[in-house]
Amino acid sequence: VIVALYLQNGLGFPALHAGLVGLPSALLSAIAAQAAGRVVLTFGRKMVVLGVAIGLTGVVASALLVLAHEAWGISIWWLLLTLGITGLGQGMAISPNQTLTLAEVPVEYAGSSGGVMQTGQRVGTAIGIAIVTAVFFVVQPMAGYGAAIVAGFGFIALVIVFAGIIGLVDLARGRAKARQEGPPVRN
Q1: 101 contacts 121 by C-beta, under 8 angstroms
Q2: Cβ distance 175 to 163 under 8 Å?
Q3: Distance from C-alpha of 31 to C-alpha of 129, rounded to nearest angstrom
Q4: Which among 4, 81, 104, 125 is least buried, having the fewest CB atoms inside 10 angstroms?
Q5: Taking the model in full, what pTM does it have?
Q6: What number of other Cβ atoms are within 10 A of residue 185's Cβ?
Q7: pLDDT digits 0-9 by tens, 91-137
């Protein structure tokens, strides 16, 4: 949402061009989700943590790019790349996280568990969009569109860092549990 606001209202892009900037992110997210889905059971939570790190890299790079565009006129079209990195990370984190989260749910509860998880994701997305756009619209009148999108990206980066910390804790707990259980018994 904030990318579209920045490009359309801040830089005067037509809606089509603003929308095209997000296309590589969507495509890379879909491709990464499929690829990660094939190997998630091999790599487990490490895949989620790696995806979160890549997503964070893309968001930070996007904020730095906007700063460079504002200061030195570097082409904003580089957002195709930085947002693409974000999409790659999203695909590597979200799909495997869903797989791993639902893997331990008994089959008879899988449908309702998936529904609860999807509802939680939708509520989280709605709250996140509300907060990010609020940050954007609080900063924009005081400091301009460039500062507003950087502030929005900063908030997003904080949320991703928090998710990464949770992922690292979950990964550590999984390793500790595996050490306690010992190696698998082979027949």
Answers
A1: no
A2: no
A3: 24
A4: 104
A5: 0.92
A6: 5
A7: 999 999 989 888 888 989 888 998 999 999 999 999 999 999 999 99
| Cα distance between residue 125 and residue 147, in whole Å | 23
Check if the beta carbon of residue 28 is closer than 8 Å to that of residue 91. yes
Q: Are the beta carbons of 40 and 101 closer than 8 angstroms?
A: no
Q: Report the alpha-carbon distance of residue 147 to residue 136 in Å, rounded.
A: 8
Per-residue pLDDT band for 184 (boundaries 50, 70, 90) equals low
Q: What DSSP string describes 27-62?
A: HHHHHHHHHHHHHHHHHTHHHHHHHHHHHHHHHHHH
pLDDT per residue as tens digits for the range 158-178: 999 999 999 999 889 887 777
Nearest to 133 by CA among 147, 150, 152, 146: 152
Q: How remote is the C-alpha of 42 from its chain's centroid?
A: 22
Place of tokens 């907060």: 131
What's the pLDDT tens digit per position in 139-154? 999 999 999 999 999 9
CA angle 103, 173, 110 (to 5 degrees): 15
What's the length of the chain?
Answer: 187
Helix axis angle, 110-143 relative to 79-103, nearest 10°? 150
